[in-house]
Design a protein that fits this description.
Length: 207
C-alpha cells in the first residue's frame, strides 16, 4: 500500500437495496478493497436484494444495526426506488446521522434526491444528474447546485449517474487513499484511457 496515504481502519459501508444501479459504485469499492479497506454491504434488512442488473446481493448487516461510529464511510448508490416512494428514506436519515457525527457520506444519482428530500443538500455544495432533477424534490438547496462531474463539500460527496469514475476519485481523495499526481493519474487512466497515466501509477505502486 505504498501509494496510499490513508490507513484502512473501520469498514466502508455500501448501501444495497432492490433496483440499485450496479455501475455507479464499482470503481470506488474495487479500488478501496484493493488498497486494504473492508467493504461491508448494508440492506434495509438482512434479506437479499436484487440490483437493476439482476445481481442478487446478500447484505452483511441490516440498516438498523449500522452505527456511524463503526464506519469510515457510507456509500449510497442510485436506485429506481429513490424516485418511486419513500422506502429508502431510512437510508437518507442514516446519512444525516453520519454527517452529524462527522462521518463521510457519498451519494450518487437517485441517492442525491434522497438526501435533498432529507434537507442535507440545502446548505452544502452538491451535484447530481441535472439541477431540475433535484429541484423536483422541492428542496431549498438549488443555489448550492454545482455543474461538475462530482462535488465534495466537507464530508459529503455527490455525483450524477454518468460519473462513477469521478465519484470514486472524490471518495479516494476524501479517505486519503490517493492524492496529488497519483490520484490525477488514476482518474486519467480510468476516465480518459490515458496511457501515460499507467506509468505514474506503476511507479507509485498503485496498480
Amino acid at each position: 500500500m505504498n501509494a496510499t496515504t490513508g490507513r484502512p481502519g473501520k469498514p466502508v459501508h455500501l448501501a444495497v437495496y432492490d433496483t440499485l444501479a450496479d455501475w455507479e459504485t464499482g470503481h470506488a469499492t474495487a479500488q478501496l478493497a484493493r488498497t486494504g479497506h473492508e467493504i461491508r454491504t448494508v440492506g434495509p434488512s438482512a434479506a437479499p436484494v436484487r440490483s437493476v442488473g439482476g445481481l442478487r446481493i446478500q447484505p452483511d448487516l441490516a440498516l438498523d444495526d449500522l452505527r456511524p461510529e463503526d464506519s469510515a464511510l457510507l456509500i449510497l448508490p442510485g436506485a429506481d426506488l429513490w424516485d418511486t416512494g419513500d422506502s429508502l428514506a431510512p437510508f437518507a436519515r442514516t446519512a444525516r446521522a453520519y454527517l452529524d457525527a462527522g462521518v463521510p457520506v457519498a451519494a450518487i444519482c437517485g441517492a442525491t434526491a434522497g438526501l435533498a428530500r432529507e434537507g442535507l443538500l440545502d446548505d452544502r455544495d452538491h451535484t447530481s444528474a441535472v439541477s431540475f432533477y433535484l429541484a423536483a424534490t422541492g428542496y431549498a438547496g438549488g443555489g448550492r447546485y454545482v455543474e461538475a462531474d462530482a462535488v465534495t463539500d466537507g464530508a459529503l460527496v455527490t455525483a450524477g449517474p454518468t460519473e462513477p469514475v469521478a465519484f470514486a476519485r472524490e471518495i479516494l481523495r476524501l479517505l486519503g487513499v490517493y492524492e496529488g499526481e497519483v490520484l490525477d493519474a488514476w482518474f486519467r487512466l480510468f476516465h480518459d484511457s490515458d496511457p501515460t497515466a499507467y506509468a505514474v501509477l506503476e511507479k507509485a505502486g498503485a496498480l
